[in-house]
Design a protein that fits this description.
Number of strands: 0
Radius of gyration: 22 Å
Helix content: over 70%
Strand content: under 5%
Order of helices and strands: HHHHHHHHHHHHHHHHHHHHHH
Number of helices: 22
Structural class: mainly alpha
Shape: globular
């Protein structure tokens, strides 16, 4: 497997480079998302930039407002995507990203911190709605899934940086580091080419050919078949301007939208943002004996290592297999954490001899999430929708993902405070269990190795041949 990956990298390195440059912004937003874990304890201490420590409710707003700001991303990107292109939207995400770091750096009160979190959320939402779409349009079919996994890899690197720097730095040190790293995204986005699809859509055939030659590393003659395929697809799909009703024009489209929205919401309802935003606090609450700072660093390393493996397996294992195995695993290990917390915090049993269990379960949680529940929804968005509705579908899935994330990050700590941390973890386990039942059912088709037409045939339950083909 690894030898095959090295051979692909040698032949496709230009596409890997462009995907990495586009995904670097998720490293910066990953830092902003992980920022709360080490910063919230600092806001309660003497070196806090705030005049007084925030209350539990105020801390919940600091955590959840980033997710609320994420709702702005699809609202910005979807209406503009037909006019300005994917490249300019990715470049535009730099504005709220840098604004957020600036506001956090000068913050002396809660409203300024709230504004910083909303700005970071808008940048993150713009990137979630645009970068996977961009990568899907510049990638060859054979490496589409692997390149799509880069987005999650860079997010996890950002979390690791926040977890590794935050506990050993001041509030301003961590914030300044995030701002400096985000400045690099400005020149990186300028280096990105526009996608061949958008150039063909706008009638810039010559420029589309040149971009394809650079991305594929071959001559004009060799990219001609792909270019002609793009032209034919644009002519077929865009006889009329896209409209939202196109998303339910066929049975297959309705089913695809339902699948992607459900899985995008599951991504958040599995508790990933809750765990990442409040990692240090949760490690203390569930009773693990390892220090919170060390625990978060371990978790960050696990995320990054697993993200490096994800591109190797995502195109070699089925989407359906990844979803049902990982969602089942999340259900089991979240449930175990809930049982441990019940015994430790409610019944006061001596669990010192098994104090490693919460951290071990969280490590396995991160591995499973990064391999399946995290990347698969966005890969399916890129695979299940025609070019005409792909941007609309991505925007709706992103919006629902962020909406579910806001509700859960805002009220998770309230549930934990009122009913016990073990209850909150059991609610997460139930959500993941629903994802497992959905994934093993016939509602989720297998899309690995299939063309778009074959996927549509499956969604519409066509009787035509839907066996895998080389793409």
């Amino acid at each position: 497997m690894f030898d095959n990956f090295k051979e692909e990298l040698k032949l496709k390195w230009r596409q890997y480079l462009v995907a990495s440059l586009a995904s670097y912004g998720s490293l910066c937003t990953g830092m902003s998302m992980g920022w709360t874990s080490p910063v919230l304890p600092q806001l309660r201490g003497p070196a806090s930039p705030l005049p007084e420590p925030p209350t539990l409710q105020q801390e919940s707003w600091i955590g959840s407002l980033l997710v609320l700001g994420g709702l702005l991303g699809p609202l910005i990107t979807v209406p503009l995507s037909r006019y300005v292109g994917r490249r300019w939207l990715i470049m535009g995400s730099n504005v709220p990203l840098l604004l957020g770091w600036l506001l956090a750096g000068v913050a002396r009160d809660l409203p300024t911190l709230y504004a910083a979190r909303i700005a970071w959320g808008a940048a993150t939402g713009m990137q979630f709605a645009t970068v996977p779409l961009y990568i899907g349009e510049i990638a060859e079919d054979k490496i589409r899934g692997a390149l799509s996994a880069f987005f999650l890899l860079f997010i996890n690197i950002g979390f690791l940086l926040a977890y590794a720097i935050g506990p050993f730095s001041s509030y301003w040190g961590l914030t300044a580091t995030g701002g400096i790293l985000s400045l690099f995204y400005v020149p990186f986005t300028w280096l990105l080419p526009e996608t061949p699809f958008f150039l063909v859509y706008k009638g810039n055939i010559k420029e589309a050919s040149e971009v394809l030659q650079k991305l594929r590393g071959v001559s004009k003659e060799k990219v001609q078949p792909e270019l002609e395929g793009l032209q034919a697809m644009v002519a077929r799909e865009f006889k009329e301007e896209p409209k939202i009703s196109d998303l339910w024009a066929t049975r297959g489209q309705i089913k695809a939208l339902g699948i992607c929205v459900f899985l995008a919401m599951l991504l958040q309802l599995s508790g990933i943002d809750v765990l990442l935003f409040y990692m240090e606090e949760l490690l203390q609450k569930v009773g693990t004996r390892i220090s919170a700072a060390d625990g978060t660093i371990i978790m960050g390393v696990v995320q990054v290592v697993t993200s490096c493996i994800t591109p190797l397996v995502v195109d070699r294992l089925g989407r359906k297999l990844l979803m049902w195995t990982t969602s089942l695993g999340l259900t089991i290990f979240l449930g175990i954490i809930g049982v441990y917390a019940l015994l430790d915090s409610h019944y006061k049993y001596d669990v010192a001899h098994v104090a490693f269990i919460p951290l071990l379960c969280l490590i396995i949680y991160m591995i499973l999430f990064t391999l399946g529940v995290g990347p698969v929804p966005w890969i399916l968005v890129a695979e299940m929708f025609p070019a005409k509705t792909k941007c609309l579908a991505s925007g709706i899935a992103s919006f629902m993902c962020w909406l579910a994330g806001f509700v859960w990050t805002r009220f998770f700590r309230d549930v934990a405070a009122a009913y016990g941390i073990y209850t909150a973890f059991w609610v997460l386990a139930v959500c993941c269990g629903a994802g497992f039942l959905f994934s093993v059912s016939s509602l989720l088709p297998e899309t690995r190795g299939k063309t778009f037409d074959q996927i549509q045939q499956m969604l519409n339950k066509s009787k035509e041949d839907t066996s895998p083909v080389d793409v």
